[in-house]
Amino acid sequence: MPDWGGHHNAKNNTPIRAAIIGLGRLGSRHARHLVEKIQGVDLVAACALEDDQLQWAHDELGVETTYKDYKEMIDKENIDTIFIVAPTPFHPEMTIYAMNAGLNVFCEKPLGLDFDEVAEMAKVIKEHPKQIFQSGFMRRYDESYRYAKKIVDEGGIGDIIYMRGYGIDPISGMESFTKFATEADSGGIFVDMNIHDVDLIRWFTGQEPVQAYGLTSNLAAPELEKIGESETGVAQLKMNGGVIATLIGGRHAAHGNQVELEVMGSNGWLRVGEHPDLNRVTVFNENGVTRPSLQSFGERFDNAFTDEVQDFVNNVAKGTQPNVTVDDGIKALKIAKACQESADTVQLVDINL
């Protein structure tokens, strides 16, 4: 279990000076956590393209200096750590620039969309072994997944036979997703939605996939066809140790945010997030008996996001590399893209990691 208590910079006992690139739906959450929850760090600068986002960071969070050009921010600011929460296609160039500037980097998933750019990114990261790099697979920090993993590791459900990962956004998020995907390439349903499930399947099984078969549809949101996106994606993975896994991504859950993982073992099953309950309240009224549901990934994983970033800050302070490596990010991206390739070509795709 990682130590998530606050640590100050071991060298001089002062907080780590950090900046953030991107203040959208996830970036603003990370920024608020850095200011209000994370120990041992000061958020001193922020970069975004929207004036209202920069104004929010200044007024709400007290971030002194704001920029629209990330290179200018890195060049000018006295920082040693940067958080990259910009659209995925920009992750490689931003990480490369930051690493070459001597900074520690926390980069949200996925690492990027273009394999050549991601390979160059990984090369630069490995050329700077004393700088800390961490990718945002926050589900490994979620208490429920950690508890399930412990049960599996201790043989509590026997050998894993099958796994299924759901990642389905609420209908209410469709408008903001459509705007995002119109302005930037999301990478497709499997890269955008299921890359976390891919990472969990690798983490739980210790196996690598060798084949993928994917299917997509737009029955519930035909308007996404125009921007080259899919509303629903389903993929089967064949793992090298015999485990079979299913990924299901979607954007049309009427009840809320459905993020679920099923692990079927030879001696029992586990399900994480089977019911996306907002809390422990059950409402009895004219609508019958109902349970309020989580409406966003932010609500569901707020503690995991906090623990993940705290662990990164602690790693920076202590000079230790995280358990999640850039190679984990590359493998997850290759697997998710293989699922998309299969869906696009209607062919079984071999995966060579």
UniProtKB/TrEMBL annotation:
Keywords: Oxidoreductase. GO terms for molecular function: nucleotide binding; oxidoreductase activity. Residues 16-132 form the Gfo/Idh/MocA-like oxidoreductase N-terminal domain. Belongs to the Gfo/Idh/MocA family. Pfam families: GFO_IDH_MocA, GFO_IDH_MocA_C3. Residues 145-271 form the GFO/IDH/MocA-like oxidoreductase domain. This is Inositol 2-dehydrogenase. InterPro entries: Gfo/Idh/MocA-like_OxRdtase_N, GFO_IDH_MocA-like_dom, NAD(P)-bd_dom_sf.
